[in-house]
Amino acid sequence: MKMEIKALTIQSALAGLRTKQFTAVDVVGACLTNVKKFNEDYQALLAVVDEDVLMAQAKDIDATDYSLPLSGIPIVLKDLFTSDGIRTTAGSKVLEQYVPVFDATVVAKLKAAGAIIIGKANQDAWGHGSSGENSDYTPTKNPYDPSRVPGGSSSGSAAAVALGMCLAATGTDTGSSVRLPAAFCNLVGLKPTYGRVSRYGIIAMASSFDTIGHITKTVYDNALICEITAGKDAYDATTSEIPVPQYTNKLDIKLQGVKIGLPKEYFGLHGMDPRVSDVTRTAIKKLEDLGARIVDVSLPHTSVAMACYYILVPSEVSSNLARFDGVRFGNGRETFGMEAKRRMMIGTYALSSGYYDAYYKTAAQIRTLIKKDFDDVFGAVDVLVAPSSPTLPFAIGQKSNDPVAMYLSDIFMCPVNIAGVPAVNVPCGFVGDLPVGMQIIGPQFGEERIYQIASIYEKETQWYKKTPKI
Amino acid sequence: MVQEDPKNMNYEPIIGIEIHVELGTLSKMFCGCPADHFGKEPNTQTCPVCLGLPGALPVPNKKAVEWTMLLGLALGCTINKESKFDRKHYFYPDLPKGYQISQYDAPLVRDGVLKLKVKSHLPANTTHQALQAGKLKVEEEKSIRIRRVHLEEDTGKLQHAVIDGKRVSLVDFNRSGVPLVEIVTEPDFRSTEEVDMFAKKLQQIVRYLGISGADMEKGSMRIEPSISLRKSEILNPKSETNSKFKIQNSKLPDYRVEIKNINSFKFARNAITYEIERQTEMLEHGDTPTQQTRGYVEAKGVTVPQREKEEAHDYRYFPEPDIPPMRFAQEQIAKSKEQIGEMPDEKKERFIKEYGLSEYDATILTEDRLSAEYFEDAVKCQKSKARPPARQVKSQEVSSKTIANWIINKKVDRASVTPTQLLDQIIIAAQSVFVSGDELESIVTQVLDGNPKAAREYKNGKEPALMFLVGQAMRLAKGKSTAEDLRKKIIELISK
Amino acid sequence: MSDTLTSSDLAHIAKLVNLSIDADQYDLFSSQLTAILDFVSRLQEVPTKNIAPTAQVTGLTNVYRDDVVDQPRILTQKDALANAHETHNGFFVVPAVFE
Questions:
Q1: Cα(B12)–Cα(B187) distance, rounded to whole angstroms?
Q2: Model pLDDT, residue A444
Q3: CB-based contact (8 Å) between C50 and chain A?
Q4: Could you say which DSSP state residue A245 is in?
Q5: Which ranges in chain B are annotated with CATH 1.10.10.410?
Q6: Of A103, A153, B57, B94, which one is least surrounded by beta carbons within 10 A?
Q7: Which of C35, C39, C54 sits opposite A307 (nearest CB)?
Q8: Phi and psi of B118, rounded to 5°?
Q9: DSSP states of chain C as a string?
Q10: Could you tell me what percent of chain B has a pLDDT over 70?
Q11: What angle do CA B138, B140, B143 make, to 5 degrees?
């Protein structure tokens, strides 16, 4: 067996399996070893599938010719993904004993593609958070520095990939929840176009914002999973009929002629860590050197985007969490954590009689303006590039008592969800041992283009090769 | 009844109603579970969607949307070109998601009028002579405005039980998610009778369209009247046509009492009548009824205050983010309009004109679409030269009126008698009138001569023997006589 | 514009959304929610007259399913009740509600 799991990607794993250098049993076994080694310290996973079951699945795959697109690839699911027979908590005590009787569409697709579901990842309860600290269980730690947060809400997903517990993990992105943990853990994280990937079976946070993404080490791996999970689903009325391209076949392009916009509002932000700015500027210079044209653009309503987000999202949250009444599943409403209660209260207030016009309706009108900002800008440039976060991964506990400060960690990301366009986080360097991520934002259904640009940049820089010192 | 006695005319009932109709689609509103929930084992027709499991998403049933539009068009309403679903929030154990997917400010259908023929409110001093002379109309047309028709999902069902000495409620979600159409009228009703007529007419239209059984007993049609009383001032109570001179106090009372839990037309009438009496009594005592929801208790025939599901009715509606909005092109609406077909009133008028039926007969025949169709099929059979006559039946003219009479008076069982067979029966019956007495006697004589034993037995009081003889005679008569005529003749000849 | 949430506001909202707030949490909730409301109040500065609200970003319209029974998705009674706290003869059991 020739395999170093931490350095393994899906692409190299499939190559190794198909050329018989190692087996699915080897790959799954190596992942389980890391789970045993690291999970107690880092709290990446909330549930691990029984070893015997996993080994039996791996053996079944080893009896095939690995022709499925994800044959034998170990994957971890964020705990918002409903998985038949595997406990699904959403990171909340409300669902501490909930064992679903069906699979989310994406889970079914991954299984059908030959993936092996290793377990369920820790997360901010219900997806409410940017740090992982809002897990009703134990917060996840950043594999690059365990005193710091891994980013959230898909905190366990990012940590699990970085720790070599799996080769990819699913996540959801309502405001930043795939991209921010990917940025904080030196990984590639996709927030697809709203409607590109089915939400059926994913526990809803804010229905008109939720997107179903995933976290991988490389752009190729990311594009591969997107090809499998994306597409029209008869069980999700908001999915699009637009055909899904074979992203992995189209990654090799030249950057000549590609126009990249830099939203000026994102670069002049007060409170931006200058070290993060510097790393991002260097990355943008790299893109320019590779042939891209860099232009300054404006997203004029950026300053109100967070306010808009923090009215509309809690409104939908208050509605989506109404079904958790302890009758058909789960515990009673008294088991909700503080952040979920806060968001439900704010959302209820924003929708309540007498306040609806001032809050919900005004925010929905401003959403129109923000979406138009993006539509306008994509008339002039192919993609936008921006920092993923204004800061480096922050210390555990630093923002946990100040909801508004925590909300501002997502300032470069939430507008993307308001508009429903796709974005990918690509690692773009380090400050000391702490990773910095860069966002490439595309127009609606522009996944192909953002993957291409991310892929060229990744080939040149290969930041993903810098794995955590564990 | 308050409105018929001028002494009590001080208070005029103001009634508006909401009617819920469960659509008879195959599947539920937002998932593929069967919509027919009646009498099924509890919780055997559910899926993640209608059980409100985490992560499940609704996808609307196309037929339910089309049928709601059809109903709206049949009620003379306008179809909103832009419509959407909204979430209506409240907590109750039979509502699995904590919200009901309904429609708020852009229902599929709005603004229509349904016309009723109601009895005129004649002044008390109306003379029989005046009525006979046709000076006063006994019926007048009354328009009931329909505010909106929208589509939503039904809730689960609760029942109450005591388990291990503990009072509990049991929940069954088979009904959860069944498509439900809500029809809301303006407060245009002024009497129990008007409400009754409207509800029956609506039921008839729904059944004509074939979109629901609209069965009150099964709960697939539910009426919720809202009742209040207002003082009506009459300038000249002796006027013949008081409605003209009545000052229409246009201001609506600032309260209304909604009545729930009504599951038959009779209970609806009783509940409204009771409520009018209750409120009249209160007003006469100087009290003002309060805005509230009351439930009808059938055993006692009274209404009682219901505890509110939620104190403040703040449903926090917002657009359902899981379902894209609906847009309808003019051509599409026009196409739906073509699908409506003939509604009961039109059909009735046509039957009167085209077939020369009386209003009474036409009304009965058009009560439901199937009996109207049956009648017309029979008429068509009659007219069609291609109709192969049954072996023993000669073709013969039968009037539409005769066919109508047969269907109405003989209560023909449509399931077992085809229109062609019906026509044969009518012709046989008609022909039997013309069978000559001689012929009849010769048939009976033949039978008696051929069966002396049976004839003797009958003479000795054995009734079954008569049946046997009638049967034999029927065979010889080959349908040219009725059993009754033959029986009479046999008795007559034997007794001789 | 910014609203300050009083205890009675909090109690009303909590009731609407069916949550119970512990007595000792009122102050914390009140200050945090007021801070959030203060934060979002900047929305009021943006002119929004005649701007249509956006509830969804897909641009999709008229998405339906055909009226057919989806047999494979129907749950058995056992599966439907599998995660319930309390069941009885195929029903979910809840504390008595007054009809």
A1: 12
A2: 98
A3: no
A4: P
A5: 437-494
A6: B94
A7: C39
A8: -110, 160
A9: --PPPPHHHHHHHHHHTT----GGGHHHHHHHHHHHHHHHGGGGGS--TTPPP-S-SS------B-S---GGGPBPHHHHHTT-S-EETTEEEEE----
A10: 84
A11: 155
Dist CA B237 CA B296 (whole Å)? 34
Res. B187 pLDDT band, cuts 50 70 90: very high
**Which is higher by pLDDT, B425 or B161?**
B161
State whether residue B94 sits within 8 Å of chain A by CB: no
Q: Which domain holds residue C27?
A: 7-43
Q: Is residue C30 part of a domain?
A: yes
C15 within some domain? yes
β pairing state of B86-89 and B318-319: antiparallel
- Check pLDDT > 90 for residue A32: yes
* Angle at CA of residue B128, ends B122 and B134, nearest 5°: 75
Question: What does the block give as tokens for B352?
Answer: 């009167």
Q: Which residues of chain C have pLDDT under 50?
A: 1
Q: Within an 8 Å CB–CB cutoff, is residue A360 touching chain B?
A: yes
Q: Nearest-CA neighbor of B407 among B395, B423, B393?
A: B423
Question: Cα(B492)–Cα(B458) distance, rounded to whole angstroms?
Answer: 12
Give the Cα separation of A154 and A124 in Å (integer): 7
Q: From CA A425, how far away is CA A388, in angstroms rounded?
A: 7
State residue B431's pLDDT score. 62
How far apart, in whole angstroms, are the C-alpha atoms of residue A451 and residue B303? 67
ipTM, interface predicted TM-score of the complex: 0.96
Which residue from A98, A201, A351 is facing B316, i.e. has the nearest CB?
A: A351
Task: Retrieve residue A150's tokens.
Answer: 């891994």
Tokens representing A187 are 């990984």
Contact list, C22 vs chain A (CB under 8 Å): none
* Helix pair angle (A105-112, A219-229), 10° resolution: 110
- Element (DSSP H or E) covering residue B292: strand B292-297
Do residues A132 and A123 make contact, with C-beta atoms less than 8 angstroms apart?
yes
Instruction: Provide the domain count of chain C.
Output: 1
C70 lies in some domain: no
CB distance from B453 to chain C under 8 Å?
Answer: no
Decide if pLDDT at B126 tops 60: yes
Query: What are the residues whose beta carbons fall under 8 Å from the beta carbon of B57, sequence distance 6 or more?
Result: A199, A200, A235, A236, A237, B49, B322
Of all residues in chain B, the percent with pLDDT exceeding 90 is 50
**Is residue A193 over pLDDT 80?**
yes
Higher pLDDT, B430 or B116: B116
Q: Which residues lie closer than 8 Å to B369 by C-beta, 6 or more apart?
A: B207, B208, B210
CB count, 10 Å around CB of B59?
A: 22
How high is the pLDDT of residue B245? 45
Out of 1.10.4080.10, 1.10.10.410, 1.10.10.60, 3.20.20.150, the CATH code matching B437-494 is: 1.10.10.410
> Residue A61's CB: how many other CB atoms inside 10 A?
23
Q: Using CA atoms in the order B354, B358, B363, B366, what is the torsion angle rounded to 10 degrees?
A: -30
- Whether C14 maps to a domain, the answer reads yes
- Nearest-by-CA chain B residue for A313: B321
d(CA B298, CA B321): 41
The whole-angstrom separation of Cα A214 and Cα A227 is 12
Of A159-168, B70-79, B298-307, least confident by mean pLDDT is: B298-307
- Beta-carbon separation of C77 and B41 below 8 A: yes
Range name among B80-84, B236-240, B489-493 with the lowest pLDDT average: B236-240
**Residue A153 appears among annotated catalytic residues:** yes
Give the integer Cα–Cα distance in Å for B460 and B465.
Answer: 10
A330 touches chain C (CB under 8 A): yes
Report helix, strand or coil for A405. helix
**Of A83, A135, A177, A389, which one is the catalytic site residue?**
A177
Give this prediction's pTM: 0.89
